[in-house]
Amino acid sequence: MKKPFKILGVSGSLRKASVNTTFLRAMQCLCPEGYSLDIYPGLHEIPLFSPDVDESGAPSQSVLFWRTSLLRADMVLLASPEYAHGVTGVMKNALDWIVSSGELTDKPLAFPNLSVRTDLAWQQLAETLKVMGGQLIQECSPHASLSKPLVLPEISEQKLLENRAVVERLQQLWGNITAHLQATTVKS
């Protein structure tokens, strides 16, 4: 039996009612057969980045779990808000811990822009991911518009899944993700 493709969802927000986390949960509910989507649970546990600790070879268990989770994933699905016209501190901190260890090098990244208000952070984060060697897959990284939102603010994933237009866009994103991963597998 073929192992399922593993996608790691990462929300750059710590809010319980985060639109980004709601998006990931909705994607998890729509996950097609042969794929798994696990949402990374521990960004809040990762300590502040310290090059001295990183270079000592003794990072915390939470950093090791973060790195291992990324390595095991066939693709990473990022969903991150904008805060004060920039990337959230928790997301940037988590990425700082993997700059030198390279878990994102050549890793396919799906990075949808969920809100029309997050362009500045999206551009900053896309540049950071590029510098880290991640492969931003354009067809898996749609940009929301006022007329075609990927999520609806302040509603649960259940309510989101009741919106046919949103579900169709999320299923289209899944179609792009599965097509990319299958094409990549055929090439290797």
List keywords for this structure.
188 residues, 7 helices, single chain, 7 strands, alpha/beta, five-stranded parallel β-sheet
Short description:
By secondary structure, the chain is of the alpha/beta class. It contains seven helices and seven strands, in the order βαβααβββαβαβαα. The strands form two sheets. Strands 2-1-3-6-7 form a five-stranded parallel beta sheet, with helices on both faces. It has a two-stranded antiparallel sheet with strand order 4-5.
Radius of gyration: 16 Å
Counting DSSP H or I runs of 4 or more residues, the number of helices is: 7
State the distance separating the first and last CA atoms: 19 Å
Task: Enter the CATH topology name.
Answer: Rossmann fold
Structural shape: globular
Q: Based on the coordinates given, report the CATH architecture.
A: 3-Layer(aba) Sandwich
What does the main sheet amount to?
A: 5 strands, parallel
Order of helices and strands: EHEHHEEEHEHEHH
Low-confidence stretches: none
